[in-house]
Design a protein that fits this description.
The structure holds two protein chains of two kinds. Chain A has two domains: 7-89, Ubiquitin-like (UB roll), CATH 3.10.20.30; 92-177, DNA polymerase, domain 1. Chain A is 31% helix and 20% strand. Chain A has helices at 30-37, 103-110, 120-136, 144-152, 162-175; strands spanning 7-14, 17-25, 56-60, 67-70, 83-85, 92-93, 99-100, 139-140, 180-181. In chain A, strand 1 (7-14) and strand 2 (17-25) form a beta hairpin. Chain A is globular, with a radius of gyration of 17 Å. Chain B is mostly helical. The A-B interface holds A 1, 3, 26-27, 29, 49-51, 67, 70, 72-75, 77-78, 153-154 and B 328, 331-333, 335-337, 340-341, 343, 345, 348-349, 386-387, 389, 393, 437-438.
């Protein structure tokens, strides 16, 4: 079944930078748009079925906790007018041009959390969303283990680095003031 | 005044007499013959047990008598009824289960709804359907269950309010809803149709979900199989007209019951459990017979060529503004898995273009799937469908109404004018239990 390509203008904000309006064929996935139009290849193509979550990005809204969205199964035009943060947008660029990794990224590096790194952008996204969520709604200390599991559970790592990802996020949550009650 | 007093006294006396009569069990009508008073020998039990496994599968005993994550046959599965919560009981051969039951006691529980000691079963246990089972099948089932592993699991108490916790009141219910006689084969119909009726009505108890109930929760015989609402979802109309409306033919229905998948979509929600625990384990001949009976045919329907795509219904008109907004939601959130044309992806996601869920009277099943998602499902032959994420946070009620109306008109061929309020009602009925982990 073929349908003619039909362009539709798309504007959104990616990693704090306004993008568009630019013509993008209707039906283009967000992942393809990030890779092919913007050159941002960090959101990885894994399963293409919304199962592995290597492709997730954060959708940011004022006054709300950011959400994870799977870019392989979500259309680019769904992000029209929205603010998106990909894995390329987590580190802070300093005045001298150097990069400072985010606390989550730093925790992953220090814990040797990843091997091949293919799934890492998704884990960075999930862990960052969790940290933001806990800033808004801290949880008791004894719930942290389960909360971290629940937050990372849907991300698949074929190198099976789950324990180190989990440890890194748990330690970061416990070491960051304001995320845990009593 | 005196007359009124006398009449009142007479009524009270009559009422007391009726209650006494009901409680005494004098009005109960057993269909169990004296022949089953003779216990089965060990050799007979051993010989019958394999056939009993097939009976248990067709009668779908396991799905209710095993709690999810619980010990097999040990009960504990909760059922929400309008009168309170009922828990399925332990039917393993332990003392808590049916370990001490004789052959005759098992027959009376299954076909009369009365357990040892005269304890009435609640009709959540479909003894009104099992009443039609043959003595041979009940014996086989007894032989199968009594040879399972003993599970020493205590039965969970029911949470029923007065007067529904008074089991003897069920003799009144039985008087009204339990047929005095059981169906006998209809000589004017084929063996296929008669076998199908037995499989669908007595063993499979399709009507327990697909037939609407009256206020006393009795099945409304005049509306048999015309569809009913179970836990907020529609068990669809499975009369010949209802099945045709969903796009089924006898052969495709039989295949759907055996595999859980068809061009009409996958078995979801409660029907997935029916396929998972029961119909996929049934003999193909019984599935064909059941399909013939449900389509009210004496002969099997023509075999279907799986290479020929199922026909999709013709779209019905919808305002361009609605379809435009819906198409944007669909392209953004749905098309990635279900395809731009609703064609689905094999082994991943079902087709929507020919999906029965878009053709049924109620949209609740589809809307709940969109909001709460669906768990990953396994089907026979290594087949599976991937988990569907829930989109409750991404679609407000207006967008959801547009999307549902568009899918139901475009692919379901239905007239659909659902409002945001309709969507809000379905959204409100979703509990954490329904939310799928994806």
């Amino acid at each position: 079944m073929t349908t003619p390509i039909q362009d539709q203008a798309l504007s959104l904000t990616v990693n704090g930078v306004p993008v568009g309006p630019m013509p993008v064929p209707r039906g283009t996935s967000m992942q393809e748009f990030l890779h092919e139009w913007l050159g941002l290849t960090g959101a990885r193509m894994g399963c293409g079925q919304g199962i592995c979550n290597a492709c997730t990005v954060m959708v940011e809204e004022d006054g709300k906790v950011p959400r994870e969205m799977r870019t392989c199964i979500t259309g680019a035009h769904w992000f029209e007018g929205r603010r998106v943060r990909t894995v390329e947008g987590h580190a802070r660029e300093e005045a001298d041009g150097s990069l400072t990794l985010s606390p989550v990224q730093t925790a992953f590096v220090e814990a040797f959390a990843f091997q091949c790194g293919y799934c890492t952008p998704g884990f960075v996204t999930a862990a960052t969303v969790l940290i933001q969520r806990l800033k808004a709604a801290p949880v008791p200390r004894d719930a942290v283990e389960a909360v971290v599991t629940e937050a990372l559970d849907h991300h698949i790592c074929r190198c099976t680095g789950y324990v180190r990802y989990h440890t890194a996020v748990r330690d970061l949550v416990l070491a960051t003031p304001g995320l845990v009650t009593a | 005044m005196r007359k009124i007093l006398l009449a009142a006294a007479g009524l009270a006396l009559g009422g007391a007499a009726l209650i006494g009569l009901l409680a005494s069990g004098a009005l109960e009508r057993s269909v169990v013959s004296r022949a089953v008073e003779t216990p089965l020998g060990a050799d007979q039990i051993q010989a019958l047990a394999p056939r009993g496994a097939a009976v248990a599968a067709a009668a779908d005993c396991y799905a209710c008598h095993t709690a999810r994550g619980g010990a097999p046959w040990a009960g504990g599965m909760p059922f929400e009824t309008p009168f309170g919560t009922i828990h399925a009981t332990n039917i393993s051969p332990s003392p808590e289960g049916i370990g001490g039951w004789s052959r005759a006691e098992f027959h009376r529980a299954l076909r009369d709804g009365i357990a040892p000691g005269g304890r009435h079963l609640y009709p959540a246990m479909p003894y009104t359907a099992y009443r039609g089972m043959t003595e041979g099948d009940v014996d086989a089932l007894y032989a199968y269950l009594i040879t399972r592993e003993k599970m020493p699991v205590a039965n969970r108490p029911n949470g029923l309010a007065f007067p529904f916790d008074q089991r003897w009141t069920l003799s009144a219910w039985n008087l009204l809803h339990l047929p005095a006689a059981v169906a006998v084969p209809d000589p004017t119909r084929s063996d296929l149709w008669n076998r199908g009726r037995y499989v669908a009505e007595a063993l499979g108890h399709c009507g327990e979900c697909h037939t609407p109930r009256n206020l006393m929760q009795g099945l409304r015989g005049e509306a048999a199989l015309t569809g009913a609402v179970i836990e907020g979802l529609e068990a669809p109309d499975i009369t010949p007209a209802g099945l045709a409306r969903m796009g089924f033919a006898p052969a495709s229905l039989a295949r759907f019951m055996g595999t859980g998948l068809s061009a009409q979509g996958g078995a979801t929600h409660q029907m997935f459990e029916v396929v998972h625990y029961s119909t996929r384990h049934m003999a193909r001949a019984d599935l064909a017979a059941m399909a013939a009976y449900l389509f009210d045919r004496d002969a099997p329907g023509p075999e279907m060529d799986p290479a020929v795509p199922a026909a999709a219904p013709a779209p019905t008109p919808l305002a361009a503004a609605v379809s435009g907004r819906a198409r944007a939601s669909y392209d953004g959130l749905c098309a990635g898995c279900h395809g731009a044309q609703g064609e689905g992806i094999p082994h991943v996601s079902v087709a929507l273009r020919t999906n029965a869920g878009l053709r049924t009277a109620s949209p609740a099943s589809v809307v709940r799937a969109v909001l709460a998602g669906l768990p990953a499902q396994t089907f026979p032959g290594g087949e599976r469908m991937e988990a569907m994420p829930g989109f409750a946070a991404d679609l407000d009620d207006a967008a959801l109404a547009d999307l549902t109306n568009w899918m139901r008109t475009e692919w379901g061929g239905q007239a659909s004018t659902l409002s945001p309020q309709d969507m809000a009602a379905i959204r409100a009925a979703i509990t954490p239990r329904h939310a799928a982990r994806d």
